[in-house]
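Box 4.2: Ligand-aware structure prediction
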Amino acid sequence: MTELAAIRGFKDILPDQARYWRLIEDRARDVSRRFNYAELRPPIMERTELFQRGLGEATDIVEKEMYTMEDRSGDRITLRPEATAGMVRALIEHNLHEGGRPVRLFCLGPMFRYERPQKGRLRQFHQLDVEVFGDSGPTIDAEVIMWLHTFLKELGLIELTVVLNSLGCPACRPRFREKLVDFLADHQKTLCQDCNRRLTQNPLRVLDCKSPSCQAIVSKGPVLSEFLCPECRQHFLGVRQALDSLGVIYTLNDKLVRGLDYYTRTTFEVHSGNLGSQNAVAGGGRYDGLCARLGGPDIPAIGFAAGLERLILLLSEKYAATEPGPDYYAAVLCPEATGPAFTLVQHLRAMGHMVAADWEPGGLKSRLKRADKAGAAKVIMFGPDELAAGEVTVRDLSTGDQWRLPINRPERF
Ligand code: HAM
């Protein structure tokens, strides 16, 4: 099956993983409910231009990672590489911001990036995306970080590090950028090839380059936090004070610039020590200019996205994903029993019992084996003797006790 195997970086999520997915999605919905965030499900394809304008032409995603195609009418469309741009588009298109109150939203779903697949990095991956529109104050930044913190804590993922930074705003960042470019230009020869390119297009990204030689240069360069204007400084202090008031532990890292162009002020990531090089479990920040850049009103916004596959890698190290087995396994032991067994099983399922069944008749030994394999608590045996008496035998597989029940009285099960 190599010829028609799944595409590289696109993975089947098999039934033995389903429990983890449900666990995460259920938890996400529950935290959303308590924080009062509503679900919005944007489509997975958008106009290519939305991402080009939204994420920035000079980002890795737009430059080399998007799945873009022409549809049959010649329009350029792209499989979403992230959710934020689509959420903003939906907010503007449906005027969700009208009414004055901040709009709190979340979405869950697949994203697509043409990256080199490795542990924790896929080409189709899934995100939980959380966004708030219409509040520029620091407390909402802390609320969004608390959303993520609560979610991770309730999944049992507590050995994670929250990294926090402020990227400043259009009033103060250009000054830093200028100083940084001047400084880096003097070290151009020692910078890696990627950073040489970034130097002209997206110099801030040099700050979080993983190459040791670039890191060594950057460590001697200008420091972003020293360039923040008084308003950005005050805002960042407010975020930190709100987090401190709840005892949230975070580390400050003023090299955390993130890979997307839309960020302003607060940025944050959550890292794990157990994921190898793809160690970011979640990342986000404030993006006050994006709504206006995409043709909408000038609405401040903040959000984050968490990578579900990475969360599952961490969860699967902690506990096994065993699904609860069925309440009953229906063992059809003779051909005449199939019909009556089908009827009883339907009644039991309608009443809420979880029932596994195989319709083709078989011997008792083989059916007991199947019941055991399915992890059933009890077996219902439909044999010729039982049928003749209008009954079935029920056996409790853990105790070995068995008893008879009338076949037409599902309520007694
Ligand atoms: P991002 O940092 O590009 O941010 O992605 C967020 C998370 O998605 C990452 O921390 C990682 O867990 C996961 N992720 C990213 N790429 C992959 C991949 N190829 N395979 C597996 N997991 C991956 C954003 O996407 C922003 N839209 C977040 C945001 C929302 N900012 C504001 N609002």
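In the box above, the bound molecule is histidyl-adenosine monophosphate. Residues 342 and 359 are 8 Å apart (CA to CA).
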